[in-house]
Write a structure and sequence with these properties.
Blueprint lengths: L1 E7 L2 E9 L7 E7 L7 E8 L4 E2 L8 E5 L3 H6 L9 E5 L4 E2 L5 E3 L6 E3 L1 E7 L15 E8 L2 E2 H7 L3 H5 L4 E8 L8 E6 L2 E7 L7 H9 L9 E3 L7 E3 L4 E6 L3 E9 L2
Length: 260
């Protein structure tokens, strides 16, 4: 099932995405009674996807991101693959949805795209054993770990470089029925292919990451884990349109604008 979060007539709801994307207004949302983090029913009330505004598919309490989880990406920035996963946070205020703008930060002159598979957590969990990891995953979505690369280099830690407002686009929806082990992941800028990799290239698997993260902290329903980016990261400029596509999920599209 594909679960979207959306706004219509000032109201926010979740809906199951249904239909044929190849025909005009072919995709519709069957509005969900309740929330996807508990038992829910489909209402049978349907609205065309074209008539709503897609929102970030979740509003996470926290986004836990993993750095240098693809060997070729680590190498392209002159880094070694770390001996243990490198985790950092992106604040909830950095999250935007598909179609929302990425606002170029005033403190940077070198902003990069980073296409990533995102994992959405379904329930409160801590110290998750490997054999139970699937039980705490609601599904998967596309992410762009937008990074002010010059600030990342200069400041040594990544809070501002990766946590500025609009630095974490997520969407367009959550896919709950998916094997994430070998999916194509790409990023284009203005239609030009920049990144092309597969999730099978991850140094550490999703199971590895969730076990590692939950050894230290409790994850809450709706929290998001970013699993790293393949090689090919590169600059974004004001006016660019960046699209992250993941096989079996869809495409997350955002335009870069100047801070007003």
């Amino acid at each position: 099932m594909r679960i979207a979060r959306f706004s219509i007539d000032g109201n926010v709801a979740f809906g199951a995405v249904e239909g044929d994307p190849t025909v005009p207004d072919g995709l519709v949302l069957d509005i969900i009674k309740g929330i996807p983090f508990a038992e829910f029913e489909l209402s049978g009330t349907k609205v065309p996807l074209s008539k709503v505004r897609l929102l970030p598919p979740v509003l996470p309490n926290k986004v836990v991101a993993i750095g240098r989880n693809y060997a070729e990406h680590a190498a392209e920035l002159g880094n070694e693959v770390p001996t243990v996963p490198v985790a950092f946070f992106k604040p909830s205020t950095s999250v935007v949805g598909s179609g929302d703008p990425i606002v170029y930060p005033s403190f940077s002159n070198e902003v990069h795209h980073e296409a990533e598979l995102a994992v959405v957590i379904s329930r409160l969990c801590r110290e998750v054993p490997r054999e139970r990891v699937k039980d705490v995953i609601l599904g998967y979505t596309c992410a762009n770990d937008v990074t002010a690369r010059d600030a990342q280099r200069a400041e040594g830690q990544w809070a501002r470089a990766k946590g500025f407002d609009s630095a974490c686009p997520l969407g367009p929806w959550i896919e709950t029925d998916l094997d994430p082990s070998d999916l194509a992941i790409t990023a284009t800028v203005n239609g030009e292919l920049r990144q092309a990799g597969r999730t099978s290239q991850m140094v550490r698997s999703i199971e590895d990451l969730i076990v590692h993260i939950t050894e230290a902290m409790t994850l809450l329903p709706g929290d998001v884990i970013l699993t790293g980016t393949p090689a090919g990261v590169g600059p974004l400029n004001v006016g660019d349109e960046v699209a992250v596509s993941i096989e079996g999920i869809g495409t997350l599209t955002n335009k870069v604008i100047k801070r007003g």
